[in-house]
Amino acid sequence: MIVETVESSVFIGTANHGFGQQAQEEIRRLFGNEAKFSHVVPAEIFLYSLPVGKMDAISKVLEQEPMFLRHMQPVDVELDWDGSVAALQAWIHDSFQLTEGTKLAIQIRKTEQVSQLSTGECKKALDSVLTDAYAIVPVAKDAELILSVYLTPERAYAGISKPTDNLSDWAGGAIRFRKEDGQVSRAKFKLLESEVAFGLDFTQYRSAVDVGAAPGGWTSLLLERGIKVTAIDPAKLDAGLLKHPNLTFHKKNASDVVLQPDSFDLLVCDMSWSPRQMARLVKGLLHALQSGGTAIITVKLMHKKPFQTVRELLEDVEPELVLQKAKQLFHNREELTLFFIKS
Ligand SMILES: C[S@@+](CC[C@H](N)C(=O)[O-])C[C@H]1O[C@@H](n2cnc3c(N)ncnc32)[C@H](O)[C@@H]1O
Prior knowledge:
alpha/beta, VC0802-like, Rossmann fold, 2 domains, seven-stranded mixed β-sheet, four-stranded antiparallel β-sheet, 9 helices, about 25% helix, elongated, binds S-adenosylmethionine, RNA_MeTrfase_FtsJ_dom, transferase, methyltransferase activity, SAM-dependent_MTases_sf
């Protein structure tokens, strides 16, 4: 008798609110119509089952990373949950075999409807299981493995994976930065997150142009990284930045500024404009970006179909700019962030 083993895997996927459908579409493109979905939090968090094993599924997603899937966590075990902490403790105790000394982090998420216990209480209860059963003291940073637990009123889901396999080592991909005193704008978080998401180190750059710079959150970060910055915006830049010795400010529309050829190794653009107009404007400035230079560009998704918007934008900026990665960041709203290298 031939016994056929049918491989499959289950994950919980998370996208920015309103973009769950796009994330599902990307997963369907990767795995075909056998990928099945069900909502956990409408338009944002969903369960999906795939016709391939867990590791194959993870590899495929990492190879062709979707733009809208912010985070994925494997579901290795499921529990019909009575809502009690004791049931969760027993379930986690019986479900996993862990090696003593593993640097493991526990990440708990839950739907709003689970109101009888906080994620903090739950984490504490599960931390104690790992410590008592496996002599593992869960870590907050630099984990080798993450035990992800997701709670809904009737069901609990848990899985173990490497932090990189989840697309983000933050629970649900919700990366947080501390708000600084006097921070110029919340937009700064987008550029901070870009550094992480695209694996960039801005201290390695010398000279940047910031198109659509006001009030100056991105400019302030680039200055902090030691870069000389040329900021362009008809609107006012934060007064505190203006006296910075490494800043040149053109209080103008970007189409009225003349930039020297090859004078920058970094171009950033965070204009809230129609994508095609923005693309044409950026294209007109590309002579100023050195070959091999980096461009980080926010694309407003407007009311158009997001995939079409990205396709059209790429048509406008290629072949001078070569796309490295496009991602909807946690700090993006109705937008995406694109990372390019100049050819
Ligand atoms: C979302 S804000 C940028 C926020 C900025 N990244 C920060 O961190 O503070 C968009 C900016 O683009 C500017 N902008 C729009 N059209 C422009 C153009 N044609 N040339 C230059 N700046 C423009 C607007 O004046 C506005 O200040």
